[in-house]
Every structure is written in structure tokens, then in C-alpha cells.
Amino acid sequence: MIDKQEYYRGAAILRLLCDARTDSVRPSAAGFVVNGNVYVLIKYATRTTSPWRFTFTPSELRFADEFEPRGKVVLALVCGGDGICALPWATASSVLGEPRSWISCRREFNKRYVVAGPLGDVARRVPHGRWPSVVFSANGVDRNE
Asked: Of 33, 46, 106, which Cα lies nearest the Cα of 74?
């Protein structure tokens, strides 16, 4: 039997592996390290419709915070079967608040993701097709946005 976590995280990992810019993906304490310098934390929600809510464990938050000075950190939020909302860690952290515990995503049909947390909404909406290109962009923002 396929575990739910394997199913949802696998969708994100497969898109990453099929991208020509991916040289390596290795598991890490709370996520994956891509090409040796990008830490990817993948969270998933099984709900089939918007909104989706994602909670974070203290160890996930601590690991992302500790990795950030050494490389880039990207958050991949698998929104049921809808898609993957991808954010640089700095953007996600700006809405997490203290204590940092959750982020939500919502999306209307054919629109971008609206990401929110205890401190409010992310200033810009996140494109539906941003994953996995955000992993490889220099500043976490695609040139086409």
C-alpha cells in the first residue's frame, strides 16, 4: 500500500527529478537537498478543494532556519490534486508569525495561489506552474512573473 505522504510528496519530487536542472536530490532530516545547496521542505494537504492548510513541526522550522544561511530554502506546498504552491522560505517566514505554526493556500479556478498565515497574506500571488523552477531561480522569483 502506498502511504499518503509518499503519494503527495512523490508528485513534487517527480516534477523535480524530471527537470533538466536537477543534478542531485538527497533526503535530509526534514526534507530534501537539491543540487547540494537548496533545501526543499515539502508539505501536503489531502483536501480536494481550496483552501488548504499546512502545519509545521518545530523540527521542520528549526531545520529550515538552520539551513538558510548555508543555502537556499524552498517550501513546496502540495495542495491536494490541484497543484504545488512553491515559495522561498523568506516569503513563507514573513507570514508565519510567532509561534510559527501554519500557512494556508487558496486558489480559484485558473487563478494564482493566495498564501496566508497568522501575520496576513503574502504580498504577491503565487503562479500555479512555479514548481520546480523556484528551486533553480537565483532569488526565488521567476523572471516570467
From this structure: 33
Task: Report residue 137 as a C-alpha cell.
Answer: 531561480
DSSP percent split of the chain into helix, strand, coil, nearest 5: 25, 30, 45
To the question of pTM greater than 0.85 for the whole model, the response is yes
CA 58, CA 40: separation in Å to the nearest integer?
A: 16
What is the strand order of the sheet 102-106 is part of?
52-55, 102-106, 114-117, 120-121
The number of domains in the chain is 1
- pLDDT, one tens digit per residue, over 25-52 is 999 877 899 999 999 999 999 998 999 9
Q: Where are the beta strands (DSSP E) in 64-142?
A: 72-79, 83-88, 102-106, 114-117, 120-121
Domain hosting 36: range is 4-136
Query: What CATH number is attached to the domain comprising 93?
Result: 3.40.1350
